[in-house]
Design brief:
8-stranded mixed β-sheet
């Protein structure tokens, strides 16, 4: 594995690289996870793909100093700065781009293609959990640059009213911040809801895991607030996938109580481009034992 850092404005972005293939694959991790989780794919995809996984703001080794906001434009800009995404250097050539052997040198990298305009490079996307929402947003933003998308137990397939209230609404965000710093009352309410079976016990366990510790509560507030602009429009995505004929593959765990497979129903009519796969597993699908199943989706 190659662990690397690049500077972006006042921040330092950490990313990992595996494989030696000619195709580019960008991977986006789930909440509280790290780029290293995608190392399990190297032996399965490394011959065909160069796999690049980034630590998102307030995750892993990335140091984010741009405030509590991160956008798809910034992410595409960061992706374009990664050396492995640059075309190989060309030898010096005479004016006009003509090399001594008579061929024409490749143009320099000028960013990802947007809407079919300008130069750029194509890539595939893999998103796990929260990373699925990121991958969907990039697909919506730059569809002409996307070759294939694999979404593993992806977030972003339904509108979470509580998340929208906590991150998109000024009052909600202030209340969210207050709750993260003084959570005792909220914990009592959630525990009561769990007792009367209004909240799934598995969900309550996750909430406690990420909020019982003061530092984790602070990270939760920063992470949720910073990623608030990643909110894909499913209606627009359906049209985009159909128009650009982009293969999209979903993978869900049958026993996943966090991300349900039914959330992919919005895409079920596009059987030409979209496939939905369900396996006997829970939410944590990015593991070595599931790597062959995930990797196979890049060839279907």
């Amino acid at each position: 594995m190659g662990s690397h850092f690049i500077a972006y404005k006042n921040s330092t972005i950490h990313y990992c690289v595996w494989g030696k293939g000619l195709k580019l694959l960008f991977c986006f991790h789930g909440y509280g996870e790290k780029a290293e989780m995608f190392a399990v794919l190297e032996t399965h995809l490394g011959e065909d793909y160069t796999i690049i996984a980034l630590d998102m703001p307030f995750h892993g080794q990335t140091i984010w100093n741009e405030g509590l906001l991160f956008t798809d434009e910034e992410l595409l800009e960061i992706m374009g700065k990664i050396p492995q995404c640059q075309p190989p250097p060309m030898p010096p050539s005479p004016k006009g781009g003509q090399k001594t052997d008579g061929s024409i040198s490749s143009p320099p990298f000028r960013g990802w293609r947007h809407g079919g305009h300008g130069s750029g490079h194509a890539f595939s996307l893999l998103g796990y959990s929260m990373g699925g929402r990121i991958a969907l947003q990039l697909l919506q933003k730059a569809p002409s640059s996307v070759e294939r998308v694999v979404l593993v137990a992806p977030d972003g397939l339904h509108k979470n009213r509580w998340y929208r209230f906590a991150t998109q609404n000024f009052i909600g965000n202030r209340l969210f911040k207050y709750t993260m710093y003084r959570p005792q009352g909220s914990f009592s309410i959630l525990d009561f809801f769990a007792k009367v079976k209004l909240v799934h016990p598995g969900l309550l366990k996750i909430v406690h895991y990420y909020t019982d510790d003061e530092k984790e509560r602070h990270r939760l507030y920063c992470r949720w607030t910073t990623m608030r602009k990643f909110k894909p429009n499913l209606r627009l995505l359906r049209k985009t996938i159909l128009q650009h004929h982009i293969p999209v593959r979903f993978l869900f765990g049958r026993f996943d109580n966090i991300i349900l497979s039914s959330r992919a129903d919005a895409f079920k009519n596009d059987t030409e481009n979209i496939q939905v796969h369900i396996i006997d597993a829970g939410h944590r699908l990015m593991q070595e034992k599931y790597a062959p199943v995930i990797s196979k989706l890049f060839y279907q």
